[in-house]
Structures are given as structure tokens and as C-alpha cells.
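User: Here's a chain of 284 residues. Predict its fold as C-alpha cells.
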Amino acid sequence: MAGLMRRVVAAAAGMVVAALLAPSAAGATTTDADITQTGGTGPYPASYETVPDLPNHTVYRPNSLPTDETLPIVAWGNGACRADGTWFENILTEFASHGFLVIANGKPNGSGQTSPDMLLEAVDWAIAENADPTSKFHGRIDTANIAVMGQSCGGLETMEVADDPRITTTVMWNSGIINPLDKRQLRRLHAPIAYFVGGPSDIAYRNAMDDWERLPAGLPAFMGNLDVGHSGTYAEPNGGEFGRVGSNWLKWRLKGDATARAKFVGPDCGLCSTEWDVQQKNLS
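Assistant: Prediction complete.
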């Protein structure tokens, strides 16, 4: 029943926000774990692939799996709940290049609608792959550090599953809960959360700021507004400024990187006194 309700919610949200996102740069489709493209500014050139056991998703990862560290898991929901796993190729490749296993809802260049359950399917698959001695990912995935995130409608999908106890951080991109009756979902949040929003011209701005005021007391939270509107910087090389900031959030929350932490914490944080409008709660 929970899965059915999540699919219904996602479909309705998709109709509400289906036209709100400018697409990112397209990429060539890969199949059967073939990687043909490289990218990202991190230490591990990365690209995407498809895998037989998760046919309705797109997997972004370093082309050569690191031998000196494991890859935390990042599950991604697309804007408009669109089942195209390469719609956000630029920013997801950027994340993967910093040493993350990023799994997007939807096939490469796919169509149709996604559901919140697909985010948890991605997490389940990654955990199973890490435990499978026949998998190339065996022992290569950090299953204790998991981010779930999404843009616009994908953020609504993210909020639907954010109560999963395995989640280490939740990230909302140009997103906030639309229906006042659904604001109760905020009470279920348990992991540090970040909102990255496009400023007052972003159609999701009011909803995101309303979420911010309703977050549970004591929950570590960051709000960053950059005046770029609802389309963000996803279409720029490496995801632009959103790619840079998102990579730092992941490095802090999933890898404990102290340099990345300094971007977000305290009155003199790295994003403070920049073009970003920053708010913080319970960050240390």
C-alpha cells in the first residue's frame, strides 16, 4: 500500500511541475555496463552506465573504481519526475567524479514517469551489489553513508522516502512540499537536510522557505539560495555552481571532509558573504 501511495503522489506531483525544468546537456546512451564518456572536475573521471539488474535507472560512477576508498551512495530523482536518467547528466557526473556512486531514476534518454519507490530501489541495489562477491562493486560501496536527493518533483519524491533510517542526508534541489497537507512529512525527517534553491524567482522558493520554517527542532539544516531561478545551473558544464556546492555538501555529509564542511558552517562559512543567500540551523 505504501508503494502504491507513493506512485500516486509522484504522478500527481509530476503533472504539477512537469514543465518547470530546463534540461541539462544530453549524453550518449550506454548499455550493458559500457562506459564511453568521461567527465567531472573531481579526482575520478566519471560517466554513466546501465546495469541489467536495475534496468530503469542510470548509474554514474568513476570509470576506474578507487582502490583506496569506498563510494557512498547517492540516489537521485529528476525534475518533473521524468524517467530520463541522463537529463541531469552534467551535475550527476560531477558528483560521481568526487568518488560517489550516483543512481538516477530512469533509463538514459528515457521517458515516462518515475515514483518515490525507485529511489529506495537504487539504494537496495547498491547495498546488494556491495555484498555480492561476483559484482565489480563488491566491497567498493560505502553502504553506511547514503544521500537521497532530487530536483523539483524529484525533491517531492525524495521527501516521500526521507524517513528511511538508512539515509544519512536528504537534499532538496529547487523543491519544497507543495500541498499543505503533506507538510507532516517534515516531522519524519531524521537526517541532516540541505535545500539548494534558485532564489525568489524560483517557482519552488515559497514552498522551500515554508518547509524551512517547519523543520523539526534540532534537525541540522542548510538553506542556500542562488538567484538563478528554477532551472538552476544544471545545464552548465559540471552542473555549474550547483554542481560545485552539491559536491561539497556530499563530501562533508558522506565523507566527513573538513574543508567541505567549512563551506556551510558558521557565520564565516565559505558560502557566506558570496552570491549565495545562506541560512543555517543546528550545524556544527
